[in-house]
Amino acid sequence: MVILSSLLISGPNSPFYQSLIAPNIGSDYSPGVGYDNGTRDASYSIGLQGIKKDDYPMQLWTCTDHGDNVNVEPWCRSIRYLLINDRLQLFKEKLANGPFLQDKVKECFKDNPHYLTLVMNPDPGYETEQNRKEQEKLKSKVSCLSEEDKTIIYQKGIELAEQQNAIEDVSCLPKMVTSDIDPSVKPVTLEHYISAGVPVQYCEQPTNGITYFRAISSITDTPDALRQYLPLFCFILTKMGAGNLNYLKLSQLMEMRTGGMSLSTHISSHHSDMKAFEQGLEFSSHCLDKNLPHMYFTCGRKYLPDLH
Fold it and tell me: Residue limits of the Peptidase M16C associated domain (predicted)?
């Protein structure tokens, strides 16, 4: 259900985004959309915010799934759910044997009679009414107090201020000293080599079949007047198309083969020289090991050719 929820609402290619956000029916999804299994009865909700009251009804569909096949046993009784690769293989087999996800949509949403529709409109006089009620409540509380009660409250306020301004006793807090740290901790082993004139660091770790990629491009040649726009540049670049692919096709390609791609500003101080530091743009992504060539290909399509 988590996978199905992500496919329905995440990214510009998702069905709900294409049918609700792209046509400007609403400004964005309402809070709390998606699959929630944190309650006794798991639920899935979809809704919009920023809808014009006269043009479109604001609706939030909540489909409650009572199927036992969605619930799992507590993890303390078994560790088989931690075998990610086995669960992925089972998921692939179900996809190959038929329209598994489509059947789940029909079972849990279309044919599910357990749903709730909410229509929520803001009250334009809410803040004024709230202030009025607070003033009335304050007056009613004060009017019932005697002079002695007011003196007691005043003294308690002074005592509270003294406690808040007093130096805290931190001796009761847990603390760590250097002797608590094992000096024999093995450092992380990095392999250094040069590829096409670019220094590369490689670190092999047990990541459950996932490869993490991180690259930094220096901005030393970027004029100071333009550096203030780099955060905006990073945000826009991840939303654009590239080459012969528009932003929808490129987004679909990234979602199919990677866990997402991000671009952000980067600054790092030198480990020995306090006055030296490195500035650049940091690109990061991750994917399954088998999709590593596709991730590099998508990176090239996204950040190397002409953007539009």
Answer: 120-307
Q: Indicate whether 74 pLDDT > 80.
A: no
> Which ranges in the chain belong to alpha helices (H)?
2-9, 15-16, 84-96, 100-105, 126-143, 147-165, 224-227, 230-237, 247-257, 292-303
The three-state secondary structure class of 29 is strand
- 42 neighbors 1 (Cβ within 8 angstroms): yes
Whether this model's pTM surpasses 0.90? no
Tens of pLDDT, residue by residue over 229-267, are: 999 988 888 788 777 778 888 888 888 888 888 889 988
Cβ(222)–Cβ(284) under 8 Å? no
Q: Rounded CA gap, 158 and 156, in Å? A: 5
- Phi and psi at residue 292, in whole multiples of 5°? -60, -45
CA-wise closest residue to 215 among 289, 135, 303, 140:
303
Residue 33: its pLDDT value, please?
Answer: 84
DSSP state of 191: E
Q: Do residues 29 and 19 make contact, with C-beta atoms less than 8 angstroms apart?
A: no
Q: How many CB atoms lie within 10 A of CB 167?
A: 5
8 A C-beta contact, residue 262 and residue 235: no
Mean pLDDT of 123-145: 91
Closest to 219 measured CA to CA, from 211, 227, 210, 228: 227
- Average pLDDT along the chain: 80
Looking at residue 153, what is its pLDDT?
A: 92
**Backbone torsion region of residue 181, taken as left when φ is above 0, otherwise alpha when ψ lies between -120 and 50, otherwise beta:** beta
CA distance 29 to 276: 44
Structure-block tokens of residue 254: 């990234």
